[in-house]
Design brief:
The chain is α/β, with parallel strands linked by helices. The protein has 11 helices and 12 strands.
Length: 338
């Protein structure tokens, strides 16, 4: 019987290690797998014993941490005892099935490339977060910043990887894939998107054409493909807009007694609204195109987000997404190059 082992970077993120340990125990209680906490053994073991379930939680000792001040690629090469590098090396050697971290994003991607390596046929891996949408389903956006530039064939690979991730992990039957563009017509966009359009249309996925950014949050499609520069700008713009909207709403609710009374009456609805757009409910962003399962949670992730990231990684492994991506890309690459 196949038994899952998932490593989690116990030193990554704003709330490490306490939130990471709590999330690991919650995830192991919810699903039948072993969580390997990667970090200083002397610090982590007492916390595990205190919370219970020690037989389902292991510790891999790591004494260093990669911070936001470190150069990602240099840190991965030099900080051999950092929690992220030790976790990624466990994945490379087949001692765990997946890695989850809330640590440095650049180092996360560097570790994926330098230690785990790309899948055959994948030119550029893609970071694929799930963006909250109005209908509550969410939409996969890729690439969200793993690579700033892209060629048409890279967008084709993103479309294939995103479709498989959406169908296998998110359980979206016949997942709809769209190309982010400045208009809906096929001839719109720059040279890259114009050339990517026919490649995606003949890729054997459910490609539905172009989509404009203003339609993204409606949830009309399951996957949106773009280059990493555009995706990263879009992602940060959405995060900033959400934070500004929340702050403005709070200011209006506190203006006077009438506003406060109205806010009190709307509190249950506002709580549901907040939950629908809360990143912690969606887990993390996988780095697709790597020869292994790596999931990146938000740096400010608390217990719920890390737990959902671990559960997401488990589904990723169980559904064989990495092998499916490799097979799909191997099938389509000769046709594109031919």
């Amino acid at each position: 019987m196949f038994y899952l082992r998932i490593a989690v970077d116990a030193l990554g993120g704003d709330h490490a290690p306490h939130a990471i340990v709590a999330a690991a125990i919650d995830a192991a209680r919810e699903r039948d797998f072993t969580v390997v906490l990667v970090g200083p053994e002397a610090t982590l073991k007492p916390q595990i014993v205190e919370r219970g379930l020690a037989h389902r939680i292991e510790v891999a000792d790591a004494t260093e941490v990669i911070t936001d001040l470190d150069s990602p690629s240099l840190a991965v090469r030099r900080k051999k005892q950092s929690s992220l590098v030790v976790a990624s090396d466990l994945l490379r050697r087949g001692q765990v099935d997946a890695v989850v971290t809330a640590g440095n994003t650049g180092a996360f991607m560097a570790a994926g490339l330098l230690l785990v390596g790309r899948l055959p046929g994948i030119d550029r891996p893609a970071l694929a977060p799930l963006i909250p949408t109005r209908n509550g389903r969410g939409v996969v956006l890729l690439d969200a910043g793993a690579n700033m530039d892209a060629k048409p064939e890279h967008l084709l690979q993103y479309g294939i990887m995103g479709a498989l991730y959406a169908s296998k992990v998110l359980r979206r039957e016949n997942a709809q894939v769209a190309l982010l563009n400045v208009g809906l017509e096929e001839g719109k966009g720059n040279q890259v998107t114009k050339e990517a359009f026919p490649l995606l249309r003949h890729a054997g996925i459910n490609f539905v054409g172009n989509i404009e950014a203003r339609e993204l949050l409606a949830g009309q499609v399951d996957v949106v493909v773009c280059d990493g520069f555009t995706g990263n700008v879009l992602l940060k713009a959405l995060e900033g807009t959400a934070a500004t909207f929340a702050a403005m709403l709070k200011d209006y609710c506190m203006r006077d007694w009438r506003s406060k009374l109205g806010a009190l009456l709307l509190k249950p609805s506002l709580r549901g609204f907040k939950k629908q757009f809360d990143y912690s409910e969606y887990g993390g962003a996988p780095l697709l195109g790597i020869n292994g399962v790596l999931v990146k949670c938000h740096g400010s992730s608390q217990e719920t987000a890390i737990k959902n990231g671990l559960l997401q990684a488990a589904r990723f492994v169980e559904q064989g997404v990495v092998k499916n991506i490799a097979a799909a890309v191997a099938d389509i690459t000769p046709k594109v190059k031919g």
